[in-house]
């Protein structure tokens, strides 16, 4: 390791920056940052971490993720010590417009991902490690700084399982066991064996260290970074919260608090000699490039109008058919790939498919990690189970992600399996993600198209698919861009406009026939893109009597509220049909009747609106 | 144990019912049910399980939760063997209107909770066990049937940690390790040590058994049920999926599939002699009643108009002040009780407060378990982190729950901590829960009132609180029922109506002053109840120029879309201000300006709408 005295001096500088920046800000997690100083200083500047701070995007840089995101002052102080953050900037911590936010975000170039919701960093790291080992074929290592309190989060244990299963010897966890959570001691305090035993049982190599001993850290990093390892490594460090500042060291009540101005000088005096001019140097990464990859071409699926195909099946076929055009795609699924049909992709391209088992939180986090390493993940499970990963999805938005989520088995119309398997709130969830795009195609052809559209989009895209087979309505020549819709039935005498999506498009078309036979013409709009909506077509519906939305989804947050909102400043009345009753087991058609979203219900409602 | 021959004969009957019901239904998880037959038959009818099937509500019944909810056919078949379900009813599996739904729901009286989204049952069981040991002081045991695939879910490991921490010797997990998941082998196959090692490392006693050996089961249950245990117990059973039916035993490709009609007779022949007339008897529970509990009274908090108090603080004070009136309350918090102020309750009533650590999924599941045992949980964390538990919240709705969630630190206005800590989609989430009530009080007084309202409500209620202090607006004599609102400013000349909630009420009041000085009168409505909305007051706003909603929340699924939806069939225009930009670190006021939801933004928008 580099000269230990130099490293030790750097720790004093870094502690100084942590205190100075948080005291100046009047907020920030000083004590949580102080406990991890040796852990990270030894890593970054002890010759172990190989990255070029002048080139944060280098594909073979080692990666460091702050899963304990509230230790952001430490992250910033480390890079101040590396000479990449000036004193002036450091003292701008937590001010509006600063790159140094309260919790790390990608406005800070050395924050690998936005963190701060605990228990998510190991999954993100897992994704980056998967990329290094199985996709880019690069030897970079991914380090994840973990807090002890956040090991209560189940998502961490999902990541621990998957990392061992995938033999990610290039993933290293650094567990800062400082004993104290936010409001008191953690479940295990300083019972280091409790951590070692559990992590070891999950198939990781473990290294117990005194987290403030540079010798221990050096020794542990050496062992954890032996090349050719197939087991992930966890360095489990006994530390003290607030280490280095006698006023707060190992004391309760200091979580999330900076040193007050009046105590600052005394605290700094505890540190001893602080030399702000020292610069920490990182080892260089090998200048390697990601492996070249060109998927073999495949036939794009072809659909004939009237053919009955489920949109979930079309999703799988689309993935397989388009991969050659989108080599950066990877596909993840949560143990249901024969149901979501992600298996179609897995069959053709097994090396680009990752089985993520029944652990949706980790799947979403790993997808973010892959996305941040330049891949385009398509992530599937049942729409209902996407709710398991809402916090991860929420957080990923803050990381400049580029991912597609595909939720199958939408709605009450899945039938006999019953409520637990029905996605009835997924549109609300994905619509709430800033700038998301939400597709709900009604047939195989439009599904194929929107999957390709999704491949072209940045940010977070959601595609909602159905369990049952639906007839193909569209020809190959049609296009389905975001913000569009398809007017399927239209005349000069349309009494009302029915806006539908997914299964309800087919119900609306049947209602159209029923009403036509009674001399009532309705316009039928396929809102295959629920966000953003096709405003122009919706405004034009003002020439009819009004809009009736129909969705296989709960009443809040979905198509109905989206349309209401879009037309809220127009005079066009909007009424909505949705699933407003407790769902239950039954056949698809009887459930749609029960819920009042079937052709019968649509026709009935139109007639009553016109009465 | 009861006569082993009798038990063995019951297993044949139960296997018969599993096959018959699923084949008749044409769907259902036969193979997953078959693997757990001995496990559950030995438990229920071997003298271990103490419950009165004629009185499912008996407070001292043992509890059996099917975490592997897809084994519902087994649950129903067990109770057919107990004489509580007729053959006719059994053959109604998965039909519309049947008590025997595709996954268990409480329409079936022996389903403790609705399950089917994997990895949730152990948390629910943990809640029931907490109740038995620490609240009701009853010796009933809670058993949770678990699948191996679902042990990938992190939520299970949250439950494992918490159960050991709380010394729940009255909680027994039964892990059906049948090796096969939905689309193939699980991560560990039949590596029984991999399960034992991990569960044991988490502090549980483990018992490895041959899951088809009645002797093994008897032996294990005896050991797991020794009275006075303080460690939870996990029986880890090596089983075969589809056991007993040679056509499908231990074979891939049979997940979720019934035996086809053509194979039914051959499969039944494999079972040997089936005697449908046999009845399994359960041991009786001790006829004990829950411990009496009368909380000591406390002073209700008193607020003076103008006093500055945060609504999160008022939440905590309300809990403490009201407990004597609501003795069934219990309070759960996720390691942030000094921030959510649940700590105020914990301080006065430590025996009714449960620290659930940083594990929100388990917290929500445990709350359901407590609710199902007659308690009224108040569950708190940051609003942002409630998203971690969306699947558990979604599922709990299907179990006739009675719970209150309180999410603090709502909105961009929390300030410097930044995006990760900001609840900006929580209204969308909780509004999407069927029949939920959603409160967002703007001052301490109304917070105190709505917390008491929540105590009176059934179902799921959400209370959203703020980080910062706000002035008290209301007097003690005011009431804040669900479905109400407060008109804070009103005149005969109101040019527009501003509907606000939480922090934006105060911004709206400031905008009111600014506009008044410019000769513009606006109506200001405090929508302290966002669901259900005060329709009458909203309709009346039609007499003004229109409605402008303002919320510290993303644009989708919150107050704005709720109001748009409520007024969608009226001519009243609705416009909305919400957080439509990426949130960031900053001071509360500068962030509200940045996001366009501040007083300045409101006044500006009103002027432009009137221009």
Task: Itemize the secondary structure elements and their pairings.
Two copies of one chain form a homodimer.
Chain A: H1 4-25, H2 30-34, H3 37-45, E1 63-66, H4 72-81, H5 87-90, H6 121-135, E2 142-147, H7 154-165, E3 171-177, H8 192-201, E4 205-210, H9 214-224, E5 233-238, H10 261-271, E6 308-310, H11 311-322, E7 329-333, H12 337-340, H13 343-348, E8 353-355, H14 360-372, E9 376-382, H15 383-386, H16 390-396, E10 402-408, H17 426-431, E11 437-439, H18 444-456, E12 459-464, E13 469-471, E14 486-489, E15 496-500, H19 503-517, E16 522-526, E17 529-531, H20 535-540, E18 547-550, H21 559-566, E19 574-577, H22 588-595, H23 599-610
Parallel strand pairs in A: 1-2, 2-3, 3-5, 4-5, 7-8, 7-9, 9-10, 10-12, 11-12, 15-16, 15-18, 18-19
Antiparallel strand pairs in A: 6-13, 11-17, 14-16
Helix pairs in contact in A: 1-3, 1-4, 1-10, 3-9, 6-7, 6-14, 11-18, 14-16, 19-23
Summarize the structure.
Chain A is α/β, with parallel strands linked by helices and 611 residues long.
How would you describe this structure to a colleague?
The structure is a homodimer of 611-residue chains. With 611 residues, chain A is of the alpha/beta class. Chain A folds into three domains: 4-271, Rossmann fold (3-Layer(aba) Sandwich), CATH 3.40.50.970; 308-471, Rossmann fold (3-Layer(aba) Sandwich), CATH 3.40.50.970; 488-610, Rossmann fold (3-Layer(aba) Sandwich). Chain A contains 23 helices and 19 strands. In chain A, strand 15, helix 19 and strand 16 (522-526) form a beta-alpha-beta unit. In chain A, helix 3 (37-45) crosses helix 9 (214-224). The longest helix of chain A has 22 residues, at 4-25. The mean pLDDT of chain A is 97. Chains A and B meet through helix 7, helix 8, helix 12, helix 14 and helix 16 of A and helix 7, helix 8, helix 12, helix 14 and helix 16 of B.
């Amino acid at each position: 390791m580099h000269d230990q005295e130099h490293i030790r001096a750097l720790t004093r500088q870094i502690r100084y920056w942590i205190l100075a920046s948080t005291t100046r800000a009047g907020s920030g997690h000083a004590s949580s940052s102080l406990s991890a100083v040796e852990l990270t200083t030894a890593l970054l500047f002890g010759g172990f971490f190989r990255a070029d701070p002048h080139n944060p995007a280098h594909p073979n840089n080692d990666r460091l993720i702050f899963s304990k995101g509230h230790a952001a002052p430490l992250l910033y102080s480390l890079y101040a010590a590396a000479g990449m953050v000036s004193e002036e900037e450091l003292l701008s911590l937590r001010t509006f417009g600063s790159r140094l936010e309260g919790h790390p975000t990608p406005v800070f170039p050395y924050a690998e991902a936005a963190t701060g919701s605990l228990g998510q960093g190991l999954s993100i790291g897992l994704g980056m490690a998967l990329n290094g080992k199985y996709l880019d074929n690069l030897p970079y290592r991914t380090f994840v700084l973990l807090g002890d309190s956040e090991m209560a989060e189940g998502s961490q244990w999902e990541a621990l399982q998957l990392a061992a299963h995938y033999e990610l010897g290039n993933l290293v966890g650094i567990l800062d066991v400082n004993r104290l959570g936010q409001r008191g001691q953690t479940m295990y305090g300083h019972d280091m064996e409790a951590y070692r035993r559990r992590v070891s049982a999950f198939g990781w190599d473990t290294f117990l260290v005194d987290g403030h001993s540079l010798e221990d850290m050096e020794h542990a990093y050496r062992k954890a970074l032996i090349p050719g390892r197939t087991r992930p490594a966890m360095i489990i460090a006994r530390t003290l919260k607030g280490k280095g500042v006698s006023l707060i060291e190992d004391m309760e009540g200091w979580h999330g608090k900076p040193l007050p101005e009046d105590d600052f000088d005394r605290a700094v005096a505890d540190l001893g000699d602080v030399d702000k001019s020292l610069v920490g140097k990182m080892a260089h990464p090998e200048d390697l490039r990601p492996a070249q990859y060109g998927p073999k071409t495949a036939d794009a699926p072809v659909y004939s109008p009237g053919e009955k195909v489920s949109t979930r099946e079309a999703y799988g076929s689309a993935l397989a058919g388009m991969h050659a055009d989108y080599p950066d795609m990877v596909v993840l699924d949560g143990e249901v790939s024969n149901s979501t049909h992600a298996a179609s992709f897995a069959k053709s391209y097994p090396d680009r498919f990752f089985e993520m088992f029944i652990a949706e939180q980790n799947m979403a986090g790993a997808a973010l990690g892959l996305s941040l390493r330049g891949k385009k993940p398509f992530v599937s499970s049942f729409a209902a189970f996407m709710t398991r990963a809402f916090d991860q999805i929420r957080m990923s938005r803050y990381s400049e992600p580029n991912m597609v989520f595909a939720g199958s088995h939408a709605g009450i119309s899945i039938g006999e399996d019953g409520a637990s398997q029905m996605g009835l709130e997924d549109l609300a969830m994905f619509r709430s993600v800033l700038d998301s795009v939400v597709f709900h195609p009604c047939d195989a052809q439009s599904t194929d198209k929107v999957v390709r559209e999704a491949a072209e989009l940045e940010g977070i895209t959601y595609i909602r698919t159905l369990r049952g087979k639906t007839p193909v309505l569209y020809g190959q020549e049609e296009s389905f861009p975001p913000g569009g819709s398809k007017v399927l039935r239209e005349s000069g005498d349309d009494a009302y406009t029915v806006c539908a999506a997914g299964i309800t498009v087919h119900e609306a078309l049947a209602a159209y026939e029923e009403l036509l036979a009674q001399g009532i013409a309705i316009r039928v709009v396929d809102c295959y893109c629920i966000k953003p909506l096709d405003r122009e077509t919706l405004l034009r519906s003002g020439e009819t009597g009004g809009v009736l939305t129909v969705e296989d989804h709960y009443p809040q947050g979905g198509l109905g509220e989206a349309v209401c909102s879009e037309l809220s400043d127009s005079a066009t009345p909007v009424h909505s049909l949705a699933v407003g009753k407790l769902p239950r087991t039954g056949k698809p058609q009887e459930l749609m009747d029960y819920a009042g979203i079937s052709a019968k219900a649509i026709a009935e409602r139109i007639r009553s609106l016109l009465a």
